[in-house]
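Recall the central idea of this unit: under ordinary conditions, the amino acid sequence of a chain determines the structure it adopts. In this exercise we apply that idea directly, starting from the sequence alone.
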Amino acid sequence: MPNGEPYTPRNEPVRSVVSDVVADCMADIDSITDQFLLDVQQIEGYAGSTVDDKDLRETAVASLELLLRLVGELPLPDRLAGISEALGHRRAQQGVPLESLLKAVRMDFRLLWVAMLEKVPAASLPDFTQDAVRVWEAVEFHTIRVHAGYLDELASMAQAKEQQRAFLLSRLLTSDGKDPQLLGQAARALGVDAESRFIVAVAASHAQKAFRERAAAAGVGQFLHERDGALILILEDLPARAGKEPTGTRPWLDQLDCFLAPPARSLAEVPLMLRIALQAVPAVTQESSGRRTVRETWGHVAAAQLGEFGPVLADTVLGPLSAISSHERERLIETLQSYFASGSVSDTAKELFCHRNTVLNRLARFEQLTGFSPNRPVDAAAVLAVLNIQSPFGDAE
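Accordingly, the structure predicted from this sequence is:
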């Protein structure tokens, strides 16, 4: 039974002295219960707990009757079947600490043994003391099943809590963030302060495994959420503490292929920042790896938002380049992209390993062909937008 095997009666007949003592204790079960109730109040976790006196007495009487029947090898009525597991479930729901519960259950051994010894005739005492193991086995049988019921209830409660948490998070993320009741419920379920700042990041689809591993290594794996195939990090940005990294910084994110949204100034802004992140994360590819923000991805998002207007704009701006060779076209676009990234002719020349006059000539050539000047802000904005759109030449520029 210490390993949880079913309780089975012994083959040898029960000595009459045990039967008589069990019968006497059954008749006196109310007074034994009174002593249990006095003793259990001394156990930390029971005093002032949510378990009321009526509950304690009813479960104590049932448990003591179960133990006495096991010791005396008496039939177990249906009302006592599963009572041990039920007790474990009940105390878990009531928030009684497991250690306190097991201490109270094991206290039954001393309580029963003292009560039984008082009823044993002096002449039978030497033989009866040999049956201490029978009382202990009955208590262990009961304890193991109480323990199992408690753990089973904890698992069920955890699952229900996680389901509720996932439900509220889903409602929050699909909301406009303006429902105070939903914000309060979501904050409590997530264990966060609704007025905190929050970090919102979405992993690129090809980098979800690495993102998950690094989040776990950073100790924030529990703040990952999966939704419609996206792997999302929603992390409360707590103030910096001594020995901790400064608030707002997560260096481990820098090397990961993900989009990091601007900080959400409260839980109410998290849905907005998630929508921003989901729009931008397709721009994070294996070719453009690492952490990306609004600054690096706005062109991709802007191009996507242009809809049907985008290809027409691309054809308007880049269409004239179809008159030149693909080699020259590629060099012009490469030069534009480098120049727009730095804004410096000298830096562009260094990156492309050419003379600065070559860069100036290519920029002038682009303006000559298209009529759009890379140095005129309004033209440069249009060129930047179309470089993020499928070009009229069938290539992603």
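Confidence is low (pLDDT under 50) at residues 240-247.
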